[in-house]
């Protein structure tokens, strides 16, 4: 995968993430009640310390590097928003990094439709490899007026 294609994957991911977020905030009154801010960070280790570098359009990224996606959901209405689902898609060309979700009470899916708690267990009673995860989501029973809810997960740029 060329660096141009890797950047395109990341741009596509950001767009699909925003689409997934807006779609899960239905009905219409919830859409306008919740603002979503997406941030992306390139995660690396320098001198033994983890470094998160904010990403902007055009930030170079290479195969094997790790990106942290952070979405903040803020209720900008005067009343509570109930049954909010925060969703992060895992785009083609990346893999979910195990145990990187925050909050940890996330659910995952291999088909972007059926979600279950992490780690996923297949019909064969074996743990599903994280490279097969295609989406993550978190359920928020109620987000009060003026409150925010932050979700994050890391993805590794892969060759697939």
Q: How many beta-strand segments?
A: 9
Given the helix and strand composition, which structural class is it?
Answer: alpha+beta
The CATH topology annotation reads as Immunoglobulin-like
Q: In the CATH hierarchy, what is the architecture at level 2?
A: Sandwich
Mean pLDDT: 83
- What is the CATH top level name? Mainly Beta
**Which parts are unreliable, with pLDDT below 50 for 5 consecutive residues or more?**
1-28
Radius of gyration: 16 Å
Strand order of the largest sheet: 2-1-3-9-5
Binned strand content:
35-45%
Tell me about the largest β-sheet: 5 strands, antiparallel
Helix content: 10-25%
Q: Can you count the helices?
A: 2
Q: Distance between termini? A: 8 Å
Query: Could you say how many structural domains there are in total?
Result: 1
**What string gives the helices and strands in order?**
HHEEEEEEEEE
Describe this structure in words.
The chain is an alpha+beta fold and 160 residues long. The chain is built from two helices and nine strands, in the order H-H-E-E-E-E-E-E-E-E-E. The chain has helices spanning 3-24, 28-33, and strands at 34-46, 49-54, 66-75, 81-89, 94-96, 107-109, 116-117, 135-143, 148-157. Strand 6 (107-109) and strand 7 form a beta hairpin. The longest helix is centred in the N-terminal third of the chain and has 22 residues, at 3-24. The protein is globular and about 45 Å long. The termini are close together. Residues 1-28 have low confidence and may be disordered.
